[in-house]
Design goal:
Layout (H helix, E strand, L loop, with lengths): L3 E7 L14 H17 L13 E2 L2 E8 L8 E11 L3 E10 L6 E11 L1 E3 L5 E3 L4 H4 L7 H5 L1
Length: 148
């Protein structure tokens, strides 16, 4: 079972603003990229069409606190930790570390909560239990990792 996932990426020029730092909104994209990669590492897609019924994961909470800027070509590690697992929802915490700093430094941290839903005609969504085959592969990270 998994509770942690990390990705490393380099900041692209298009992700920076006129001040030359990563625009705040891109941290939410980085969180989403890490979440999608986490699901792929478990053998699933965030768009679970191969599960009956198909499920989706809309966001019900997202936040990010910024400590230090990231700039073009900085190398950043995005760490995802599962902080809570309920029958119909998952919560994650994210830590963003600038790896090309000496020593690497925490530049931001975020939180994301997603709810498992089924889709109906006309776009209606209904919260549902996380499918067993997904739930069985995900666990909550140890408290010492979440708090640290």
């Amino acid at each position: 079972m998994a509770y942690e996932f990390k990705i490393v990426r380099r900041v692209e020029f298009s992700e920076t603003d006129m001040a030359g730092i990563v625009h705040y909104s891109n941290f939410f994209k980085y969180m989403e990229t890490a979440e999608h990669s986490f699901f792929r590492s478990l053998g699933f897609s965030i768009v679970a069409r191969n599960i009956e019924p198909p499920v989706g994961w809309p966001r019900v909470h997202a936040e990010c606190d910024y400590k230090q800027p990231l700039r073009f070509e900085d190398e950043v590690e995005v760490q995802l930790l599962v902080s809570e697992k309920r029958s119909k929802a998952l919560s994650y915490i994210f830590r963003f570390r600038k790896l090309n700093a000496e020593p690497p430094i925490l530049v931001a941290h975020g939180k994301l909560t997603v709810v498992c839903v089924t889709h109906h005609e006309r776009g209606k969504m209904t919260a549902c239990n996380i499918p067993k085959e997904i739930a069985d592969r995900i666990q909550v990270a140890p408290a010492e990792l979440i708090g640290g």
